[in-house]
Amino acid sequence: MTKIQKNTFPPKEPGSFDAGLSTKKLTTAARQSHNLYYREYRKNNPEKIKELRARYWEKRAERELNDPGFRVKQLAKKGYTQRAIAEALNISLGSVNYYLNKK
Which of 87, 88, 75, 79 is nearest to 99 (CA)? Predict the structure, then answer.
């Protein structure tokens, strides 16, 4: 019976384990091959791509509408004062300050 070796994190050698395929770490030839594959996939599966994009934007909109930090920043960009934002969103002035200074 062979023992299955689990991947360690962080990897022992740079580039030996990559959880997600990052195009920045690929060589030029590998990047071109990767891009060609996805270009063909998008061309052959337009309905799937439309569904994925629609789902992405729906989730993003839902996340932004439910995220008080996003709404605070949105009102701050419109020129509202911190006190006005706190009153409009029914949150404390400290929370508004926290969301505006959060990185």
Answer: 75
Domain spans of the chain? 26-66, 67-103
Q: What angle do CA 80, 62, 47 make, to 5 degrees?
A: 135
Q: Are 24 and 18 in contact (CB under 8 A)?
A: no
Question: Cis peptide before 10, with omega less than 30 degrees from 0?
Answer: yes
Choose among 37, 46, 42, 90: nearest CA to 68: 90
Structure tokens at 44: 């052959």
Is the pTM higher than 0.70? The answer reads no
How does pLDDT run across 42-51, given as a tens digit for each residue? 999 999 999 9
